[in-house]
Amino acid sequence: MMSTGALIFMVGAWTFVLGLTFWAYGRLLKADASHEPLPPPGTSL
Prior knowledge:
Elements: H1 4-30
């Protein structure tokens, strides 16, 4: 079994990572796509 400190650190790290991920996706989904510049013609994605 892991020590208590290691368990607290692991839960805190995952909370930070997942929180940052959902925050970034939320910002992307709320962003207005009309302000995003279009790629030049002929650019393959």
